[in-house]
Amino acid sequence: MADLTRVAEQDLMKSSVEEADKPALVAEPPANLDDNSSSSGRGCFAEKEKEDTGGHQPKVSRNRKREFEDDSRKVHMGEGHGQTVAAHYNELQEVGVEKRSESRIFYLRNFNNWMKSVLIGEFIDKVRQKKNSITVLDLGCGKGGDLLKWRKGRIHKLVCTDIAEVSVQQCQQRYSDMKVRSRPSERIFNAEFIQADSSKELLSSKYDDPAMCFDICSCQFVYHYSFETYEQADMMLKNACGNLCRGGYFIGTTPNSFELVKRLEASPTNSFGNDIYTVKFEKKGEYPLFGCKYDFHLEGVVDVPEFLVYFPLLEEMAKKYSMKLVYKKTFREFYEENMKNEEHKMLLKRMKALEQYPANDHSSLASDKPDDYEHVEELMKNGKAELPMGTLSKSEWEATSIYLVFAFEKQL
Ligand SMILES: C[S@@+](CC[C@H](N)C(=O)[O-])C[C@H]1O[C@@H](n2cnc3c(N)ncnc32)[C@H](O)[C@@H]1O
After folding, report:
1. What is the CA(321)–ligand 1 centre distance, in A?
2. Domain housing 379
3. Burial letters for 141-154: b for 16+ Cβ neighbours within 10 Å, e otherwise?
4. Which of 80, 172, 270, 404 has the fewest CB atoms within 10 Å around its CB?
5. According to the model, what pLDDT value does residue 259 have?
6. Are residues 162 and 302 both part of a single domain?
7. Is there a contact between 103 and 345 (Cβ–Cβ < 8 Å)?
8. Ligand 1: which of 7, 84, 89, 297 to mutate, most ligand atoms within 8 Å of CB?
9. What is the number of the ligand 1 atom nearest to the C-alpha of 1?
10. Are residues 240 and 367 in the same domain?
11. Is the same domain home to 290 and 361?
């Protein structure tokens, strides 16, 4: 998906103190957005699950095998959408703090960033119980949006890699700036930067130490680009998990295929969305396991081709690399669970991950459509909330609730 999280984390750190004494920003997401119990749309995948994975083992038909072989040829010929994706991310401009705060999706970006912070923090804590010197692979690092999270986690070594060369350069620059600005007493992690297409090239040969073993591979909003072909998805998995230490974690965020198909099936056309995002499929009703392309458009960003990731298949494929699923949660589930933790709730405020409703005298709401906040009014009517409260506009909830959070653990 397009870069939903680019927020200058420095700004977030700075805002922590002044935000602390604002009114409690506790909100519930609009109730009807991602009700996974609904059968609409899920049916196609439930059937697919039986048909293609036999519950767990994917059975690949002869035609499907032929498809894989054709895809494989494409990979070796360097075809596919990787270059389009790289070009898109290379062209994305870094925007200043002021411009960013004016963005219609300011809170959505912050919210997604909070989700990543909590996820990353959780797994750093898990590893830290076993060892102190933590090594991380940030696969699809972009412009380095997570550098401050690694700094906060006091890791020892980071390898940043991305298909987009300009992004890798900007990430490296951000790392150097961070080092220069840090206190002399603070030990900042060592870092290595690699431009590579992780769905087509083996990363290990590019590391300073090819035998490097990672405690965490973090793949935030990236893995779905690899589901163009089986070979690409497998190569990205190999890069993510092949060099993990025993007990290491592969964590990430990716669109939830059930949610995408559910919304598509409910739409009268081949697309769905709202005023800030649009997802456009080529057709409805047929969802191949690989190469099921859709175009994702986000406010102020051009279309990027992405691919549906059928999660039960990813879970199966990961077994090849001795990976066991620890959990898979929708953004909604993850948010609701983590909001029970006071520290995470405070972080949500500090990161400005929710907007205050109603706006105060010095601010205006992100959306000027009154029905974008009807879920808050509904909560109020039912006596379930007090104003002012923290929320996202309905359009932003709809965009963020497409995603899921996952974590795998290396068994051997
Ligand atoms: C939505 S951005 C996320 C960036 C970063 N992970 C974050 O959360 O801020 C997706 C990133 O995946 C990268 N990407 C897409 N396909 C890739 C591939 N085949 N190999 C490596 N990186 C890829 C893009 O260049 C882009 O930087």
Report:
1. 22
2. 355-391
3. bbbbbbbbbbbebe
4. 270
5. 98
6. yes
7. no
8. 89
9. 1
10. no
11. no
